[in-house]
């Protein structure tokens, strides 16, 4: 089968950073489904894993954590899917990724693809939708359905992949008042179209900008870029007994004592936790993807696809990685068709 892989961790400008190869097609066992991949998306995790370092792989390593495709074969313990089903998923960071014609993935972290979407539109969703859903509803414990009065959330990095889904879920599913950050006219337009009622600039003074818009504090803060830089502002902005969640690792220790007087909470979201540790509730990822598919099909939320490259090959994947490395991507970049 065709695949794109690496053996060395090189700058993306190097043509050897991602290469076209041929691999044997794997066979499913246990709870695995074998998916014939039709489209893949690129995420910051791809860039971070591929980033230059001295390590050398003994065998080619296939990256990729977003895919949509068709079930080609199933393992003996599979009960949720059958051959021919259209599916989407983000996969497991401890296993070979989706940058290949066929991929094995545990059925418990797979969802039924939205019926109203193309493969490329569906491939833009899984990793960001899982991350946003878990951050809001599992980590921050945001209740589903609007309250009176509506609670508020500050989403730092609203125009990226996760932010684009988080805004929609926060507004349409949770009924929150959403303040998103954006720093360019095109990204501000994007987040407003997705439902953000207020927009502030993450390069400015966040608490001061919130106050200018009538928010002394916010009930929730979701940090989607540069935790080190934004944590002090998040701690100042969060309400007493509020909650902060981040998806971005920190480089230096965070001063969580800033939260003590407010009895405020701080929590991490890492969407690979359930698959990495085979948690008892691992099936919840498949369940939430099915819920997201329903929200897409009833037009509550929309796919955040912003760019499509074709075919799926090393040259186009390197281009997608390079674009993502600029830090100025709005929505999601997808590749389709081998």
Describe the fold and architecture:
The chain is an alpha/beta fold and 338 residues long. It folds into two domains: 2-125 and 279-336, Alpha-Beta Complex (Quinone Oxidoreductase, Chain A, domain 1), CATH 3.90.180; 129-268, Rossmann fold (3-Layer(aba) Sandwich). 29% of the residues lie in helices and 28% in strands. The strands form three sheets. Strands 3, 5, 6, 7, 8, 15 and 16 form a seven-stranded mixed sheet that branches. The protein starts with a strand and ends with a strand. The mean pLDDT is 96.
Q: Total number of helical segments?
A: 10
Question: Rough shape?
Answer: globular
Give the structural class. alpha/beta
Number of strands: 16
* Sequence of secondary-structure elements: EEEHEEEEEHHEHEHEHEHEEHHEHE
The level-1 CATH class of the largest domain: Alpha Beta
Give the overall pLDDT as a whole number: 96
State the end-to-end distance.
10 Å
Count of spatially separate domains: 2
- Biggest beta-sheet profile: 7 strands, mixed
Question: Could you state the CATH homologous superfamily of the largest domain?
Answer: Medium-chain alcohol dehydrogenases, catalytic domain
User: Which topology of the largest domain does CATH recognise?
Assistant: Quinone Oxidoreductase, Chain A, domain 1
What is the second-level CATH architecture of the largest domain?
Alpha-Beta Complex
Query: How much strand content do the residues show?
Result: 25-35%
Rg over alpha carbons: 20 Å
- Residue share in helices? 25-40%
Low-confidence stretches: none
């Amino acid at each position: 089968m065709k695949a794109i892989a690496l053996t060395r961790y090189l700058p993306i400008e190097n043509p050897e950073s991602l290469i076209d190869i041929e691999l044997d097609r794997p066979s499913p066992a246990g709870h695995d489904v074998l998916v014939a991949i039709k489209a893949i998306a690129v995420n910051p995790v791809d860039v971070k894993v591929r980033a230059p370092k001295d390590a050398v792989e003994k065998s080619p390593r296939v990256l990729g954590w977003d895919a949509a495709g068709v079930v080609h074969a199933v393992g003996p313990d599979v009960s949720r899917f059958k051959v021919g089903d259209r599916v989407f998923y983000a996969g497991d960071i401890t296993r070979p990724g989706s940058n290949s014609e066929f991929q094995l993935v545990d059925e418990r972290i797979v969802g039924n693809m939205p019926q109203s979407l193309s493969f490329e539109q569906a491939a833009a969703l899984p990793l960001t939708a899982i991350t946003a859903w878990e951050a809001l509803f599992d980590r921050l414990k945001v209740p589903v359905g609007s309250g009176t009065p509506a609670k508020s959330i500050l989403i730092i990095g609203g125009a990226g992949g996760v932010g684009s889904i988080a805004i929609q879920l926060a507004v349409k599913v949770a009924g929150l008042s959403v303040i998103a950050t954006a720093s360019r006219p095109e990204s501000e337009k994007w987040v407003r179209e997705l439902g953000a009622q207020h927009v502030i600039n993450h390069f400015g003074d966040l608490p001061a900008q919130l106050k200018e818009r009538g928010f002394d504090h916010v009930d929730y803060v979701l940090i989607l870029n540069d935790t080190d830089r934004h944590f002090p502002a998040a701690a100042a902005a969060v309400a007493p007994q509020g909650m902060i969640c981040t998806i971005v690792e920190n480089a230096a220790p965070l001063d969580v004592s800033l939260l003590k007087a407010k009895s405020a909470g701080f929590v991490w979201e890492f969407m690979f936790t359930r698959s990495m540790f085979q948690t008892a509730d691992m099936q919840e990822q498949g369940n939430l993807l099915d819920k997201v598919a329903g929200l897409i099909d009833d037009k509550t939320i929309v796919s955040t696809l912003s760019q499509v490259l074709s075919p799926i090959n090393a040259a186009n994947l390197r281009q997608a990685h390079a674009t993502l490395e600029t830090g100025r991507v709005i929505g999601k970049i997808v590749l389709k068709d081998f």
